[in-house]
Each structure stands twice: as C-alpha cells, then as structure tokens.
Amino acid sequence: MLDAAAVQDLRRQHYNATLAGVRKAHDTLWCFRVKPDFPIPDFHPGQYTTLGLGLWEPRHAGAAPEKGLDEKKVRRLGRRAYSVSHPVADPGNGRLAPEGLGYLEFYIVMVAGGGSEPAPLLTPRLFLLNQGDRLYMGEKFTGEYTLEAMADIRHLADALVVFAGTGTGEGPHNFMIWQLLASGFQGRIASIVCVRYKSDLAYEAIYRRLEKKYPNLSYHTLTTREADTAHQKIYVQDYIASGKFESDIGRRMDPANTHLFLCGNPAMIGIPKIRGGQKLWPEGKKGVIQIMEERGFRMDLGKNRGNVHSEKYW
Predict the structure, then answer these.
(1) CB of 181 within 8 A of CB of 191?
(2) What CATH number was assigned to the domain covering residues 4-137?
(3) Residue 282: exposed, middle, or buried by beta-carbon count in 10 A (0-12, 13-18, 19+)?
C-alpha cells in the first residue's frame, strides 16, 4: 500500500524511541526495553505512558487479520497505554538494579485477537521488532496507582505492603518493589502473582535471588493451567480468603499497618459500582477488595483514601 520511501518518511515523522533490548519469557511474553530520544522525565513507579507503531508496519502472522485499513488509515499510529515495569535486579547475580538505567521496561503479552474481539493494532506489530528498531513513546507519564498511597505506613517498622497481580499486571509492581528496596524500606513486602503456566513467570528467577538478599521480601506464585493445578485452581482471591497467604508470610494483614495493591484481571480485583453511596459488588466469586473490606480494610476511592488500591488492566 505504501512504498519503502513513504514508510521511512513516516517513521522519521512519528518515532521518537529505540528498542534497546528484549528479554523473552516465551514467544508471546516479552520485556521490552525502550530508550526514548528525549530525557526520561521524573515520574512515579506505578504510572503509565503510551507506546505506538505505525499501522504501516508488518503484523505477526498469528494475529487476527485487520479489516478496513485504507491508504489514509494506514498512515496512523496504533497506540496503547502500558504501565512501566522494571528489571528489578540483575538476573545473574541478584544485585539490585541501579538508578538511571537509560531505558524503560514494559512487560507485554501479545494479543492475537480473533472471534468477536477486534483485531489488535499494536502488539502483533510490537512482537516483530528487533533490537535497534524504532517506535513511538509518549512523553507524558500519569496515573494515581503509586506508592504515595501508602505514605501513612511507610515509616512503620511493622508495615506490610502486599502486591497482587495477574499476568502482566505484575509489571507496575516490579518498579514499585524496586523503589521500596532501593530506598531501604524496612517493612515487609509480599508479591503474589497468578498466571496460567510457569513459563508466564518472567520475573520469578529474579525474585528468588532477591529473596535471599532481602529477608523482608517474599514472592508467591500461583498457576492455573499446569497439570498439577488445572483441576484445583487457586486464584489470588482463594489464596487470600483461605488464610493460606497469611500462613505463608507468618502474620495477619492488619488495616493499621497494611496496604494492598491489586493490578490485572477485574475479577480478581472486584471493583464495586457505587450507587447512592452504597457499594454494589460484582456477582459471583468475591474479589479481593470485597474480601478485605469485610475484614476492616477500605477501598481507595481517590478523595476518600483507603488501604486497598487497584488498577484494572482491561
């Protein structure tokens, strides 16, 4: 549809970043390291920006076909917001990653689409990139899902911060945990990650090494489709509601000294609708917010701050 000269011209017009490297968990789950042409601005771990590629770029053969892409539309960028992740530590020696990496890491799964889902614009193109290729990165970083929300317990020696993520919802937690460790946080840090297969745990090896260096850090993994778990699935909600998580960390979660950060599947989080000041909980299995509110915790509503914070991924 466009000749090579037109494609090069569009890339020069729109792209402002370079793919500095990729760490692959498997074929459809990558950690993208992106170096922008502009100075990386100050922002908070947990916040997000956008990545983009031109619709003129090739797409992964395994993705659902696009429809209605004419010569006008093909000149546009396909963009999507992504929370900034973090390498956390050197996977070889477990040494905490330094400040000022010069790049930003994004934890992304390829979405193929198909069926009733619209063909995804971005990830089928992202997963054809190689180191050194160009792309677009937004210069604005935003979001309220940050460690500022736990300021009231940060000074407490018995503070407990629990991160619970599903799939790539672990991404922002990696950056937040790195900041806590790098700043010398003395409280307890626990990260729960629920995925389908063990191969989806892209950061597990890093955290296992970190656990040996930081006695206040623990990493808890749940899988739902492995042979030994497929018929006895334990989701984050089950792990917390059953008391197994508290047994594993050796203490109870107390609203006076504990904050929870939840990111990923809306069913795990369980955000209620607010009607007339009342919470209407989702039907079916309780989400973590409802489980914790029944134990005296409070959902963070922005102006009315609480100790259970959430970020939906879709």
Answers:
(1) no
(2) 2.40.30.10
(3) middle
Residue spans of the domains in the chain: they are 4-137, 147-312
* 3-class secondary-structure state, position 218: strand
CA distance readout (Å), 46 to 53, 172, 179: 23, 5, 10
Residue type, 113: G
87 vs 107: CA distance, rounded Å: 10
**Count of CB atoms situated within 10 Å of the CB of 35:** 15
Q: Is the pTM of this model over 0.90?
A: yes
Give tens-digit pLDDT for 241-268.
Answer: 999 999 999 999 999 999 999 999 999 9
Q: Quick one: 86 exposed, middle or buried, by C-beta within 10 A (0-12, 13-18, 19+)?
A: buried
CA distances from 90 to 86, 174, 208 (A): 11, 13, 12
3-class DSSP assignment, residue 89: strand
What are the Cα distances from residue 290, in Å, to 45, 93, 261, 282, 296? Answer: 26, 40, 14, 9, 10
